[in-house]
C-alpha cells in the first residue's frame, strides 16, 4: 500500500477515526495495530525481519539500562578513585552488550545489501574449480529496512550514552520502530523526540487535522504533478542513453535533481502531514536544500535526519577517536592553518561519506557518489580562504543577491553532477554519461519528443515555479498559517485549486497508483 | 578563559566569543569547526572529549566550552 494510493487515504481515515474514538490511554495501541497491519500488508515476511531486530534491540537496551542502574547504585557511596573503577567496569560490560546488538542490527543491514555480491563472488571463485554454484535465495530487501535499522542504532547508542531510558514495554518499543507513516522512507526518528509523543494521549484537534491534510496535499502535488511528470522525461532519456549527449543530458540531470527533491520531500510532506493528523510532530527532513550556498550547507538541509544521524553516530565519534586526534595533532604541527584543518577533517569526512554511499547501495556508483561529496567538502575547506581572498581582490560584494544566487547555482550544479552516479544503473553507465555530457552538443534538439509534450512542459514549468515561490515564502513565513489567515473564499479557493491540480494534472500511470518513491528502494 | 578564547579564535577568527551564546544553534560554527576545537582542547588541556560530550549545549558559547573543559579536567 503506497502512501499515494487511495487505499492509504482510506486506511489513514479509518485509523484516525478509531484513534480519536478510543480512550487516550489506548491510542498508542491503535497506532501499533495500524503500523503492524500496514507493514504486513506491504510484505508479509518483512515483519519477521523487523520483529527480530526489535527483539534484539529491546533486550540489549534493557540490559544496558539495567547496568546503568547498577552502576549508579554501586557508586553512590564510593570515593572518587573507586567510582572511576566502578565506571570502567560497567562501561566495559555495557560496551560488550552494545557491540553485540549493533553487530546484529548493522550486520543484518550489511548482509541484506551485500549478499548477492558475496554469492556472485563466491560463485566466481568456485567456478575456477568446478561447475557447482550457490543459488542466491530470493530475499527481497525489506521495505524501509535502511531507515528503521538506523533508528534502532540511534536508540541503542542513546540508551548506552544515557541520553534516554530504555523502554520497558516491548509493544511500545515496537511501535517506535514500526510507526507506519514514516517506516518506508523516514525521517529517521530519535527516540527521545518521537516516542513520548506516540505514547501520550492526544485530543482530536481540527487545526492539526486540517494542517496535516494541507501538508499531505502539498506532498501529493510535489510527487504526482512535478516529480512523476519530470520522471517521464528523465526515464525516457535514461532508457536510451546512447542516443543522447551534451545539452540533453545536462537538462535531463537538472530535471532529475528537481524530480528527486519533489519526490523525496513530497513523500516526507505526506508522511509528516499524516503524523500531524495524529498530533505527532516528526523531525524535519528538508529545509529547501537548493537554496544552499555551499555543499556542507546543502547536506545540512537535504535528508536532514540521515545527515544528522551520521554526524551524531559516526562523524563525532570518529573525530573524537584517538586515531583522529593523533592525525589532527600531526597535521597541525606539520602543515598548520587551513591545510591542517582539512587533513584533520578528511579522516572522519571520508568515512562518513563512504558509509553514506554504502547506505544507499553496495554498488561502486554509490561509493563513488559518496567519495565525490567527501572530496568536495575537503576541497571546500582547503580553498575557502583563497576564495575569500579572490572575492576581496575582485571587490565582489559577497552579501549581494547576485553573488548568493551564483553560490546557490554553483551548489546546484555540483549536486546535480553527483546525481549522475546516483541515477545511473552502475558505474560504467555513470562514466558513459560523463563522457557524452561533455561532448557532442547537437545543433538542434526537439525536447518535446522526450516523454513530455508541450502541455506537460507547460504544466511542469508552472508547477516548478510555484514550488520555487512557495519555497521562497517558506524561508520567511509559514505558508499554511498565512493561508489560514485569509478569508474563507481565498482559503478554500487555494485548497480546491491544489486538490484539482493533483487530480487533473497528477501523473498516475497505467495502474492509477502513481510511481514508486525513489528513496523507497533504499 | 582568555586562553580558551585564543584557541577558539585560531580555529575560527572574527567572532566575538565573549558575546555569542548560540555558536552551534545559529550555525556560526559547524561540525568541522567542532572537530578542530576538540583537537585543540585535547592538546592544550590534556583532556579527551568523549563523543557523548559533543552536543550543541557544550559548544554554544565560550563559557559552555570552558565549563565542559573544567568538568573533564576534574574527571
Structural class of chain B: mainly alpha
Largest interface: A-B, 22 and 18 residues
Largest sheet of chain A: none
Instruction: Tell me how many strands of chain B there are.
Output: 0
Which strand-content bin applies to the residues of chain A?
Answer: under 5%
Q: In terms of structural class, how would the helical and strand content of chain A be classed? A: mainly alpha
Separation, N- and C-terminal Cα atoms of chain A: 17 Å
Strand content of chain B: under 5%
Task: Write down the domain tally of chain A.
Answer: 2
Supply Rg of chain B: 11 Å
CATH architecture assignment name of chain B: Orthogonal Bundle
Number of strands of chain A: 0
Spatial separation of the terminal alpha carbons of chain B? 19 Å
Helix content of chain B: 55-70%
Helical segment count of chain B: 4
Quote the average pLDDT of chain B: 88
Number of helices of chain A: 19
Largest sheet entry of chain B: none
Estimated radius of gyration of chain A? 25 Å
The CATH superfamily of chain B turns out to be ACP-like
Structure description:
The complex is a heterodimer of chains A (522) and B (75). With 522 residues, chain A is mostly helical. In chain A, 73% of the residues lie in helices and 0% in strands. Chain A folds into 2 domains: 6-204, no CATH class; 205-282 and 413-420 and 430-522, no CATH class. In chain A, helix 2 (27-42) crosses helix 6, helix 3 packs antiparallel against helix 4 (80-126) and helix 8 (206-238) packs parallel to helix 19 (488-505). The two termini of chain A are 17 Å apart. Chain B is mostly helical and 75 residues long. Chain B has one domain (2-14, 21-74): Non-ribosomal Peptide Synthetase Peptidyl Carrier Protein, Chain A, CATH 1.10.1200.10. Chain B has 4 helices and no strands. Chains A and B meet through helix 11, helix 12 and helix 13 of A and helix 2 of B.
What's the arrangement of secondary structure elements?
The complex is a heterodimer of chains A (522) and B (75).
Chain A (H helix, E strand, L loop, with lengths): L5 H16 L5 H16 L3 H30 L4 H47 L18 H17 L8 H9 L12 H9 L6 H33 L7 H32 L17 H7 L2 H16 L2 H13 L2 H24 L3 H30 L7 H23 L3 H11 L16 H23 L2 H6 L3 H18 L17
Chain B lengths: L1 H10 L19 H15 L10 H4 L2 H13 L1
Helix pairs in contact in B: 1-2
